[in-house]
Amino acid sequence: MEIVKLKGYEEMSQKSSELVIKTIQEIDNPVLGLATGSTPEGMYGELIKAYRKNNVSFQNVTTFNLDEYVGLSGEDSNSYRYYMNEKLFHAVDIPIEHAHVPNGDTKTPEKECAEYEKLIRDVGYADLQILGIGLNGHIGFNEPGTSFDSKTHTIELDESTRQANARFFNSLEEVPTQAITMGIDTIMKSNKILLLVSGEKKAEAVQKLVQGEITEEFPASILQQHTNVVIIGDEAALSKL
Ligand code: PGA
């Protein structure tokens, strides 16, 4: 694992956007795996700035987001489709049909999962997968106990995850209980993984990810077995290494 320690959130965002741009420039039809949450927001902002300066085009880029809540439509401001449209897709030149987010607003989530997995497999998986990490070690919405062999699937959200994400909703009750997520195996098939971490709150999770036992009880620990992982983090998040 390569670990890049930077001063703060802005530096992390800037550096990670540079890596994404490099990937887009080096590969003909790049496939990016994307994440939501607070951590990558700054990076998306930097990508938009670079696009506006004509430093990057998303015309040939295909994206797959990691996850989506079950039961929320793309028009719901708490859905990850909405987040991605607002934070990136609508601000750059990506053809929107190339920008995939699982459809959480479906009566047949199992079918949605199988189709999503097939779409990713058919393009040869992500060239670069962006990840964050949950306090409980989740990557995507793969909560503790998820099989390392998992493909795109539906999961029950951990109570701790619902509580962590309740800040975006009016109340905890409104936070969905299920999500669709790429599986651990799907994520591990990416050519390269870029994990972003910021803030002291994440320090313990980062330590377990890098130095802890590899166990399904802490899903991110599997990244120790991937041969091409870069962690870009700020001093606070990397302080326990
Ligand atoms: P965060 O979420 O970026 O909002 O901290 C990360 C995650 O839960 O995977």
Describe the structure.
- The protein is α/β, with parallel strands linked by helices and 241 residues long.
- The chain has one domain: 3-Layer(aba) Sandwich (Rossmann fold).
- The chain is 30% helix and 17% strand.
- The strands form two sheets. Strands 1-10-9-6-2-3-5 form a seven-stranded parallel sheet, covered by helices on one side. The protein has a three-stranded antiparallel sheet with strand order 4-8-7, with helices on one face.
- Helix 1 packs across helix 2 (41-52).
- The longest helix is centred in the N-terminal third of the chain and has 18 residues, at 9-26.
- The chain is globular and about 40 Å long.
- The chain starts with a strand and ends in a 7-residue tail after the last strand.
- The model has no long low-confidence stretch (mean pLDDT 98).
Topology summary:
Blueprint: E1 2-6, H1 9-26, E2 31-34, H2 41-52, E3 62-65, E4 67-69, H3 80-87, E5 99-100, H4 109-122, E6 128-131, E7 153-156, H5 159-165, E8 178-181, H6 184-188, E9 192-197, H7 203-211, E10 229-234
Parallel strand pairs: 1-10, 2-3, 2-6, 3-5, 6-9, 9-10
Antiparallel strand pairs: 4-8, 7-8
Helix pairs in contact: 1-2
The chain binds 2-phosphoglycolic acid.
Q: How many helices?
A: 7
pLDDT < 50 runs, ≥5 residues: none
Average of the residue pLDDT scores = 98
Number of DSSP-assigned strands: 10
